[in-house]
Amino acid sequence: MAxxxxxxxxxxxxxxxxxxxxxxxxxxLSVDIDDGEFLVLVGPxxxxxxxxxxxxxxxxxVTTGEVRIDGRDVTDRAAKSRDIAMVFQSYAxxxxxxxRRNMAFGLEESTDMPxxxxxxxxxxxxxxxxxxxxxxxxxxxLSGGQQQRVALGRAIVRDPAVFLMDEPLSNLDAKLRAxxxxxxxxxxxxxxxxxxYVTHDQTEAMTMGDRIAVLDGGRLQQVGxxxxxxxxxxxxxxxxxxxxxxxxxxDCEVRGDRLSAAAFDYPLVxxxxxxxxxxxxxxxGVRPEDVALSGPDDDPTFVAGVDxxxxxxxxxxxxxxxxxxxxxxxxxxxxxxxxxxxxxxxLPPETVHLFDGQTGExxxxxxxxxxxxxxxx
Length: 377
Prior knowledge:
Elements: E1 4-14, E2 22-33, E3 38-42, H1 49-57, E4 64-69, E5 72-73, E6 84-87, H2 99-110, H3 115-128, H4 144-156, E7 162-166, H5 174-191, E8 194-199, H6 202-208, E9 211-216, E10 219-224, H7 226-231, H8 236-241, E11 248-255, E12 258-260, E13 265-267, H9 271-275, E14 281-286, E15 292-294, E16 302-311, E17 315-322, E18 325-332, E19 342-346, E20 353-356, E21 362-364
Parallel strand pairs: 3-8, 3-9, 6-7, 7-8
Antiparallel strand pairs: 1-2, 1-4, 4-5, 9-10, 11-12, 11-14, 12-13, 14-20, 15-19, 16-17, 16-19, 17-18, 20-21
Helix pairs in contact: 2-3, 2-4
């Protein structure tokens, strides 16, 4: 196990068609990953997360900055000298080798372990991953989930200081992906190995990581626990990227003690008024689950038409239109909302987020009740 540090890491690629002749894929990224921590790098395609992982692995050079493992500068060390193990999206198993040989090959080539110790390590790891009955099969005889377990096993037998995982579940179907998420978390908890996991899937990020690091355009936007990034985003990008369905955003002008949007006026009360002081334009944000629906005559903030209702079983996702504004609400699955009707929409002040209309920086996040009673299981 080890502590992993990225200190001002930057990666530039030569591109004659780009302004200045280069593209900045990762820009001054600094983050500390604690010993045994599971950190998820998340962001849209092209944000620099896979490039970051490859720089940690030694598969991509670092333009400026340092990569340190347990305080050792490994920035210029070869991949084989970094004590890391990587699991790829494509599994990358040797097709002509059995599962046993795939798992043993790295130990045979890079260590002085005797054959009987390698065989024992492979057998123990195969039992842990429930693939011991598959040891004499070849990859083409395995399902996608079995191949992923073998790829994980190949990494685990190395007993590395750091695990690196590059979208390892993206080739699996939805049910198996959910199952493997749980298995990966249990496995990482049991092994206690520092892990950096790359994904664009918000569900994986929210459910798997001790912390998540949100990237956009090569720059780090926020590092925090999943709930911190969900409830207390540092800017509009994080607020919109984390969460599904996404946060609703409504452009508003500040006019005295109210916000004026295209379809409604919203009163500024309490700390909302303080948050917008000195600002003339803000973006009001509210999560779909915080949009309260009522009858159109129940004194709502505004009235909206119901365009589409998407039932998912436990909840209904309701798409609304009010003038030029569109927004999404989620309501319990047993509540009936009909397309083509009108509903009252209220935005409770304690649930509202406010962002600077020019910079997108958070001015105020929703109130989270830290004193709420916690149930011990």
